[in-house]
Every structure is written in C-alpha cells, then in structure tokens.
C-alpha cells in the first residue's frame, strides 16, 4: 500500500485527522510491540530515520522572503518609476 492510499483510507474513517497524526499513529502501531526485542527496535528506528531524511530531501520548503526583503523589493520597484 502506498503512503497516499494509506492516508486516504485513514481519512475516510477519521476525516479530521491531520497527516502528522496519521503518520505518528502508524509509527506507534509499528513500534508498540517491539519493546522487548532490542534488535527489531533498532532496525525500526534506523528505518524511520532513513525515511524521514528521504522525505525532507524530497520536499524542500520554499523560502519566502522576509519582511525586510519584501520592503526592499517594493522600495526598489518604486524608485525605478520615479527616476
């Protein structure tokens, strides 16, 4: 099952659930039974870190210019018209 399919199936049953809540619940469900098995817990932890790093690399956030940068842009645009 793909990630989008899983999230869609959960949202059918729980329409108010956020993506973050769904991911945390799925991870909890996977890790809940491995408390007694250290090796399995370590493998799951390594997998989670790998997947998280992969997601962060895929979805780089768009950096929005700050207030000062937007103000400078507006001022520079306005100065071009007056000269």
Automatic annotation (TrEMBL):
Compositionally biased tracts (Basic residues): 62-71
Region Disordered, residue ranges: 49-83
Protein name: Uncharacterized protein
Domain of life: Bacteria
Species annotation: Methylobacterium tarhaniae
Biased composition annotated in UniProt, kind: Basic and acidic residues: 72-83
